[in-house]
Amino acid sequence: MRKTCSTGIIFTGILLVALVTSYSDKDKPKETLPSKEATLETLKDTPQKREIITKKKKAISNESIESKAEEQQKQLPKIILIITSQACNCTLERCFKGEKIVNKVVQQFPEKLTFERLDHAIEPTLVAPLEREYQLHYLPALLFFDRKETFRGKLEAFWDEVAIREKLIELGLK
Predict the structure, then answer these.
(1) How far apart are CA 66 and CA 73, in angstroms?
(2) Is 57 a member of any domain?
(3) Per-residue pLDDT for the chain (174 aa), expressed as one digit of tens each?
(4) Is 120 contained in some domain?
(5) What b/e sequence results for 24-43 when a residue is b if at least 16 CB atoms lie within 10 Å of its CB, and e otherwise?
(6) What is the spatial order of strands in the sheet that 114-119 belongs to?
(7) Domain count of the chain?
(8) What pTM was computed for the model?
(9) Domain hosting residue 132, numbered range
(10) What is the CATH number of the domain that holds 111?
């Protein structure tokens, strides 16, 4: 039997890899990519340039649409309903009835005001600062803000559609 030298096999393998690598690198056409410092103005009119320009235009367009929607929403009067889902039966009943009345009134002013609903039991960290700032003592509570997000009034515990509409008229809604 003939012995084989493993060192020779490894050396042959390395030699083949070196040949293949050097051969493929020499025969590849060199591509010149634009440098990082290259700007759109310095690039020739290529598909790459057109793609970059298209992406930038879409990004700018999307940003302006989003900012206009946010701006428009900020310009609307806002009401915040604060209820609770954990309390005695009489408070739960007031919250249920109050929410029903508010929903009915809000539907009468589509796209004319912003409406938020907060549950004291579920979101106490959001509700607590509002309770302190606007001195809320009873639930449900309804807070009214004008187009500049300035506080304009509140209703607590009991109200009807007429009381809510009067507050909304004070905010400029008809």
Answers:
(1) 11
(2) no
(3) 455 554 455 444 444 444 455 544 455 555 555 554 455 555 566 777 677 777 776 777 666 666 555 555 558 889 999 999 898 999 899 999 999 999 999 898 888 889 999 999 999 999 999 999 999 999 999 999 988 888 999 999 888 899 988 888 888 877
(4) yes
(5) eeeeeeeeeeeeeeeeeeee
(6) 114-119, 78-83, 141-145, 151-156
(7) 1
(8) 0.57
(9) 77-170
(10) 3.40.30.10
User: Residue 92: which of 119, 116, 115 has the closest Cα?
Assistant: 119
Nearest to 151 by CA among 52, 63, 79: 79
Whole-angstrom distance, CA of residue 143 vs CA of residue 152: 8
Tell me phi and psi for residue 16, to 5 degrees: -65, -45
Residue 45 lies in a domain: no
Considering only CA atoms, give the Rg of the chain: 34
